[in-house]
TrEMBL record:
Gene Ontology terms, MF aspect: arylformamidase activity
Record organism: Halobellus ruber
Domain of life: Archaea
GO biological process, one term: L-tryptophan catabolic process to kynurenine
InterPro entries: KFase/CYL (IPR007325), KFase_sf (IPR037175)
Gene3D superfamilies in UniProt: Putative cyclase (3.50.30.50)
Name of the molecule in the record: Cyclase family protein
Xref: Pfam families: Cyclase
Length: 233
């Protein structure tokens, strides 16, 4: 018999028409196609990019011949790991090796490494959330790959910073998104992006271990998928 976890913490952002999306993406379109009162049943239609809300990336996201999500076993999307405190990083900061090295003794090979920047406090159509979020430097991504992480999660829109330009905002970093992503994806390390509530997992400690689930839908031949992510304590 399996013992139930003492606590389950939802790490997932909501999905509705008004959620913030990557600034160059179209908004989510969620609408009722049928209504039970009128049609005898209710059904919705959802149109959105696969890298929307809380989601995972596969190597195909940046590597033309990289693996797609369906090419991994479902066990790739769950596992034991650790949340680490990075809440002292600032706007648009590139998280460096020194920020992570202080926790090296807490990270085991095969861990799901969750980076708690606290950026979910800015969630919404704010400059901080959409453009000025912390992200991994290339060296930091290589460092996590060297530690043999299974997955790397972050409570910002992406492991890579805002490098593009839209009418209301220019680039916020000189770190190219490929530099942040490729060291992970080339080693089949799954980025988990746009998480929330990692502080609730960590509590008052600098680190805390938990069991994490972040399974994608069983899409075929895709570079990403929204997920429902949880921490079991």
């Amino acid at each position: 018999m399996f013992d139930a976890p003492d606590e389950i913490i939802d790490l997932t952002n909501p999905i509705d028409n008004g959620i913030p999306v990557w600034p160059s993406f179209p908004p989510v379109d969620l609408k009722h196609e049928s209504l039970a009162a009128r049609d005898g049943f209710t059904m919705e239609k959802v149109t959105m990019r696969t890298h929307t809300a809380t989601h995972v990336d596969s190597p195909r996201h940046f590597i033309p011949e990289g693996r797609t999500l369906d090419e991994f076993p479902v066990s790739k999307f769950m596992g034991e790991g650790v949340v680490v405190d990075l809440t002292d990083v600032g706007n648009s900061a590139a998280i460096g090796v020194d920020d992570l090295a202080q926790y090296e003794d807490e990270i085991d090979a095969g861990d799901v490494v969750m980076l708690n920047t606290g950026w979910d406090q800015y969630y919404g159509t704010t400059d901080e959330w959409m453009f000025e979020f912390p992200h991994l430097s290339g060296d930091a991504s290589e460092y996590l790959a060297d530690l043999e992480a299974k997955a790397v999660g972050i409570d910002t829109p992406s492991v890579g910073g805002w490098y593009d330009e839209v009418p209301g905002h220019g680039p916020s970093t000189d770190v190219h998104p490929a530099d942040s992503h490729l060291p992970l994806l080339e080693n089949d390390i799954i980025p988990i992006e746009e998480l929330r509530n990692l502080d609730a997992v960590r509590g008052d400690a600098a680190t805390r271990r938990a069991y994490f689930l972040y399974p994608p839908l069983n899409f075929q031949d895709t570079s990403g998928s929204s997920v429902r992510a949880f921490a079991f304590l």
